[in-house]
Amino acid sequence: MAASILIALTLAGCSGGSGRSTDVSVTASHCAPGWHAPRSGTTTFQVANRTTQTLDIQLRATGGQLAYAEIPTLGPGTTRPLTVTLAPGTYDWQCASLAGLIYESNPAKVSGPPVQATPGYIPVNPDDLDAAGYTYRTSVTNGLQTLAGATDQLQTLVAAGQIAQAQAQWLVAHLDYERLGAAYDTFGDFDDEIDGRASGLPMGVDDPGFTGFHRLEYGLWHGQPVATLTAVAGQLDGYVHALVAAFPHQLLLNTDLPLRTHEILENALQFELTGETDYGSGSNLATIRANVDGTQMTLDALVPLLSQRSPQLVTSLNKGLTGLAGLLDTYDLNGKWVPVEQLTTPEREQLDGTLGQLLEQLSVVPDSLRLFVVGAD
């Protein structure tokens, strides 16, 4: 098949294993032939790649889908430790080259007493994320169309001098944007133009580089002239429509989705629950509520993959998101949200605790969807 490929690995078992060291050579047609399994417990394998190619190395349960340890990038001529706690059972090694050639070792049996083993996981091939990426991109595309309609209406109300109605519509439009959380990095400069903050700008809120929703928020809630507000609203609407046109050509990395399920609400905890992004509307809790929807949209795209690997995690996350949404909704008083600074200490602690607990659960998602990618960290 690829006779020119010659791979050499050294696997040394220690620290709770059998104490034996085993040198194993891997050729083009075999991965770690003759390797000796340690006894149950914790073992550190010293994995050495003496080839000229980068390899992906996995230790797997024989006859199943689960992997227990992996070095996704083992460069030529390098040695790296691989520590894992193995329960009694049968395991084998899988070696893959950058050329896409995959080889498996003969199985070997780990014997010994039962132990609390390293949890197994089903590696995700990047192709597995294609469907999730397509689902999410479709959701973002639809959300952008809704956003454009909302900023069109916002611009009209501002130009007509209907400030109270414009304030209400500002919140509608801003929340439409905040529900697109996982796509922020994809938007590039548009995100700063549409939803940037004044912090760090030389002139603060008066800086010409301060644009978008928060610039309009500042003007609407600080009584700025209609002519000024009209110019800001028109600029915002223009940026939104430019983003709608640009998004089909922007790169949304499917491999980023598992991370984004955690990062959206992590940013909410840092910037919204602290009130850092309040420029007069007092709507930070509403923004967090929209971020919950954005997290749910991201999670929904990943459910087919997560359900196969950890259905209990999907159930727990859906329950946690529903619980946080319900708690936030109690601060929506007929469309007027309680400002963060008006929260009592017990209320703030409850929100902090609920959001923090959910973030701990969401942090499991990337590990549950660990990628099998030759050449990836």
What does this structure look like?
The protein is of the alpha+beta class and 377 residues long. It has 2 domains: 7-120, Sandwich (Immunoglobulin-like), CATH 2.60.40; 128-368, M75 peptidase, HXXE motif (A middle domain of Talin 1, Up-down Bundle), CATH 1.20.1420. It is 45% helix and 17% strand. It has helices at 130-159, 163-178, 184-187, 189-195, 213-220, 226-246, 257-272, 284-309, 311-329, 345-362, 364-368; strands at 7-12, 21-26, 41-49, 55-61, 67-74, 78-86, 89-97, 102-104, 108-110, 332-333, 336-337. Strands 4, 5, 7, 8 and 9 form a 5-stranded antiparallel β-sheet that branches. The protein has a two-stranded antiparallel ribbon with strand order 1-2. Strands 3-6 form a two-stranded antiparallel ribbon. A hairpin with a 2-residue loop joins strand 10 (332-333) and strand 11. Helix 1 runs antiparallel to helix 2 (163-178) and helix 1 runs antiparallel to helix 6. It is elongated and about 80 Å long.
